[in-house]
């Protein structure tokens, strides 16, 4: 019986290092690897992805499909159930090696009828509805990403927003009385980045920091469903993923909106991430998606200080 390994990343800026780490730790023997081309869209149905199709064509009854985490293969309840039906039909086993679904036998059959157990479908629907798949994604992208980086000897975390060759100039200007807000404008970075660059100087110069911002308070905005679907398939920072995970779904006719509570900076970042819905760079815009993004943009523009 063959061990078939499936790998995928969402953008061509990502690598499979983290997946390789999880799968290597699993000790899979004689693996036959099927890896999607970098950047294969998360929104594409798993059964429509080229390499997963090749895997299914190659597989024989009794083979086992291995993935590092559930979200590498699917991103929603419907996708999960569709894939499970096909695996059950072809009598293939599924082994998920990390995350919320790793302890479950997702293709368990009834001992007498051989049918996929209804309890499996119920458990999948329950976990997905509870947001376990999205929380799995958030947790694994953060935690295991650091593990993979450390395994290669790299230090995790974002690069400083203020370049190293400009840090001294920023610190000197701050000591000369330039406010944090003014320095942020001068260098085109956030105020937080400036505060990081001058962190050890802040206690002695609190009075000079008249531009320090008042902490932002969370605001609630309705994110159109088409925008929310796009964002859920994107690679997000933990705070952005959490904001979506905790959003409240409001049904509107055949569609829905996601009521998201977050600080204005997070809403602005989410809006920036779905810029692709407007089209450009050879990608045609879908009118409904473009309209949905503009609706969200109009709501974000009502936040203080925004000019979109």
UniProtKB/TrEMBL annotation:
Keywords: Transcription, Transcription regulation. SMART domains: Resolvase. Transmembrane segments: none annotated. GO terms for molecular function: DNA binding; DNA strand exchange activity. InterPro entries: Fimbrial_Adhesin_Reg (IPR053721), Resolv_N (IPR006119), Resolvase-like_N_sf (IPR036162), SSR_resolvase (IPR050639). Residues 2-153 form the Resolvase/invertase-type recombinase catalytic domain. CDD domains: SR_ResInv. SUPFAM superfamilies: Resolvase-like (SSF53041). PANTHER family: DNA-INVERTASE FROM LAMBDOID PROPHAGE, RESOLVASE HOMOLOG YNEB. Belongs to the site-specific recombinase resolvase family. This is DNA invertase Pin-like site-specific DNA recombinase. It comes from Streptomyces griseochromogenes. The lineage of its organism: Bacteria, Bacillati, Actinomycetota, Actinomycetes, Kitasatosporales.
């Amino acid at each position: 019986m063959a061990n078939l390994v499936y790998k995928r990343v969402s953008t061509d800026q990502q690598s499979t290092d983290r997946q390789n780490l999880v799968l290597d730790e699993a000790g899979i023997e004689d693996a036959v690897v099927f890896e999607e081309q970098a950047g294969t869209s998360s929104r594409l149905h798993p059964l429509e992805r080229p390499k997963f199709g090749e895997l299914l064509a190659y597989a024989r009854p009794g083979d086992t499909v291995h993935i590092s985490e559930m979200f590498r293969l699917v991103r929603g309840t419907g996708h999960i159930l569709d894939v499970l039906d096909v695996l059950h039909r072809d009598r293939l086993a599924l082994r998920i090696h990390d995350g919320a679904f790793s302890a479950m036998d997702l293709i368990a059959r009834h001992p007498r009828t051989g049918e996929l157990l209804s309890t499996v479908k119920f458990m999948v629907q329950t976990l997905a509805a509870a947001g376990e798949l999205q929380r799995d994604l958030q947790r694994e992208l953060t935690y295991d990403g650091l593990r993979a980086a450390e395994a290669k000897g790299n230090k995790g975390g974002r690069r400083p927003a203020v370049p190293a060759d400009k840090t001294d100039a920023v610190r000197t200007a701050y000591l000369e009385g330039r406010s944090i807000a003014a320095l942020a404008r001068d260098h085109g970075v956030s105020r937080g980045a400036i505060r990081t660059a001058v962190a050890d100087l802040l206690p002695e110069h609190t009075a000079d920091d008249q531009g320090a911002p008042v902490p932002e308070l969370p605001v609630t905005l309705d994110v159109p469903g088409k925008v929310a679907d796009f964002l859920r398939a994107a690679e997000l920072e933990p705070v952005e993923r959490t904001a979506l995970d905790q959003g409240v779904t409001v049904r509107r006719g055949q569609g829905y909106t996601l009521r998201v509570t977050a600080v204005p900076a997070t809403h602005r970042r989410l809006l920036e991430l779905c810029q692709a819905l407007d089209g450009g760079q050879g990608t045609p815009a879908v009118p409904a998606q473009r309209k949905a993004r503009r609706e969200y943009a109009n709501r974000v523009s009502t936040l203080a200080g925004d000019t979109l």
